[in-house]
Amino acid sequence: MHHRLRRYRDGVRALILAGGSGTRLRPITHTSAKQLVPVANKPILFYGLESMSDAGIKQVGMIVGDTAAEIRAAVGDGSRWGLEVTYLPQEAPLGLAHCVLIARDFLGDDDFVMYLGDNLLRQSVREFVECFERARVRASHPTLDDDTADEAPSAQILLTPVPDPRQFGVAELDSRGQVVRLVEKPADPPSDLALVGVYLFDARIHQAVAAITPSPRGELEITDAIQWLIDHGHRVRSQLLEGWWIDTGKLTPLLEANRLVLEVLDARVDGEVDAASRIEGRVVIEEGAQVIGSTVRGPAIIGARTKVVDSFIGPFTAVDCDCEVVRTDLEHSVMWSNSSVRDGGRIVDSLIGRHVEVRRAAGQPVATRLMLGDHSQVELA
């Protein structure tokens, strides 16, 4: 069975969705793709690429939109993850099923994982793929003592219980965990099981996406395509997510994602920490970083070549590379590369973008002076 699975895996591809404009994370995403927002100093998209590589997938199609140049510059040809990445431009955000439509030539007749590039999962994709493979192999090689022989599944979806399913696509299951109905943002949800942004399909999905029509919001919905499979007698499996899942397109979940990832960091100190400083708990100090007269209390990460002077970096904080934090308390926050905070007082629950300068006002009259772009948010103490 294991050998058969491994041989089967060679025919599994990945379709990663990295288009979309990230309107909910403005002003950050005016100048940066939302999939490249760093969590624990690593772009969200990279976690997905690592998960594909871990699952033994080699061929990845990357759907890109307006931020294509930035995604290409960050990901390259995918070789650092052992992947071969093919870029597939989507002219307009016309829905997840539309992504499958334009990826038809790349996907061929292979099975494929579809993965939303701005989602963050604790669970590896490997187990998700292996469950699908086992169900496919069982169906194609039934044994005499197997009384569960069934049609090979055409799709598999990942589900997780949520407090308010009205905000999500929701699945209704039968007693065996097969999907019988999908409803998008239902007023009266049939269950509390929301679709996580990971799907597995065989070639039958191409017939489904070609058959459906746009939803009222003008998009080809993947939920409609999966419902088409169900309505035409094809089997759709479900699997419950283990661990957390976060849609990182909003500020609060982004800080929460940072916290959850930091909690599983392996502590290491590759930079310089002087004798007057203290490192407490699970902390990563990257190579070239300097911590001087400061306390860093984990979980936290300090990026390469960053300088922390006479400061407190509190729990659940990620400071990216080439930053300066001077005489400032920074807690439960994310600070991106090439930014500086000097004499900042106590800063909490904050997201500080790239090339940002925060400093204490000097001279008279003492006043708060702001230069803020569109969609900025500031809370003054």
What features would you highlight for this structure?
2 domains, 381 residues, Spore Coat Polysaccharide Biosynthesis Protein SpsA, Chain A, UDP N-Acetylglucosamine Acyltransferase, domain 1, 31% strand, elongated, disordered N terminus
Helix segment tally? 9
Biggest beta-sheet profile:
9 strands, parallel
Shape: elongated
Oligomeric grouping of the chains:
single chain
**Overall domain count:** 2
CATH homologous superfamily classification of the largest domain: Spore Coat Polysaccharide Biosynthesis Protein SpsA, Chain A
Unreliable spans are 1-9
Number of strands: 28
Instruction: Tell me what the CATH architecture of the largest domain is.
Output: Alpha-Beta Complex
The CATH topology assignment of the largest domain is Spore Coat Polysaccharide Biosynthesis Protein SpsA, Chain A
What features would you describe in this structure?
This protein is of the alpha/beta class. The chain folds into two domains: 249 residues, Spore Coat Polysaccharide Biosynthesis Protein SpsA, Chain A, CATH 3.90.550.10; 95 residues, Hexapeptide repeat proteins (UDP N-Acetylglucosamine Acyltransferase, domain 1, 3 Solenoid). It is 22% helix and 31% strand. It contains nine helices and 28 strands. Strands 15, 16, 18, 19, 21, 22, 24, 26 and 28 form a nine-stranded parallel β-sheet that branches. β9 and β10 form a beta hairpin. α4 crosses α7. The longest helix has 16 residues. The N terminus is likely disordered.
